[in-house]
Amino acid sequence: MSRVKPGQRAYLTVSRETPMGYMLDSEDGEILLHKNETTQELAEQEEVEVFVYLDNQSRLTATMHMPVVEEGTYAWVEVVDVNDDLGVFVDIGMSKDMLIGSTDLPALESLWPDVGNKLYCTMKISKHGKIYGKVATDDVMKAMAKPAPSHLFNREVTGRIYRVLRVGSFIMTEEGYVGFIHESERKKEPKIGALVTGRVVNVKEDGTLNVSLLPRKQESMDEDAQVLYDYMESRGGVMPFWDKSYPEDIRTRFNMSKAAFKRALGKLMKEDKVYQEEGWTYFKKDK
């Protein structure tokens, strides 16, 4: 018989079958392998590989469904539930989901992952034998990354946010490159685990990337012009802003820089949709 610990794989022998499943021999007594946790029918005295963990009543239990992540290994796992008090639960390929505690998530709950987002994490075992998840550190992510080639400049990349800071967010691309998204290169801060697509604005000497989530200038101008047009339309065709308005007022109202505002306003004026007068911008009457 083998001595087993929760959070580990073990080869155990079937001692008997019960209505609920199979009882497996171990030095710590019999361990239940529920029928829902089997991948095939078993016979008495048959040896089977299982993963052992503690159930909700802190009893040793076994499964033949091996987790995709274990102690010492890492994998991308999907968030299946968010609990405001505890943290998030992720699917690791077992019937029991794994908890990643709130202390291992961003301090701002608004940056916690949504259901469907994915986190790169490992499994840990508490001193009481409970399994829990631990998000990979920045060192772990950078150790698995590969250097990005210089021809990626101005190309689009897609990846997942794995770390969020006040000054920006870190991304691991689908190709395995590490990138940084500065706070000035996004309109909204992405959540950890979110899948995002951005444009490479710099390939650094160390092989990491600087990535922007902002649209290209022409796309941005079209989008910003629509924002201004919609705002004016909601106010009856007039707004108390023009190209000499203060940058901070523009930022507060439209969440765009003065340069972007002037480009968008210039586009509307060029299209003959608006005109400016004494600090205000108006729709043209015949438009």
Automatic annotation (TrEMBL):
Q: Which family does it belong to?
A: Belongs to the CvfB family.
Q: Where is the S1 motif domain?
A: 154-214
Which lineage do the record's taxonomy fields give for this organism? Bacteria, Bacillati, Bacillota, Bacilli, Bacillales
For this entry, the protein name equals S1 motif domain-containing protein
Q: Which domain of life is it from?
A: Bacteria
One Pfam family name from the record? WHD_CvfB
Give a GO molecular function annotation for the protein.
Answer: nucleic acid binding
Organism of derivation: Priestia veravalensis
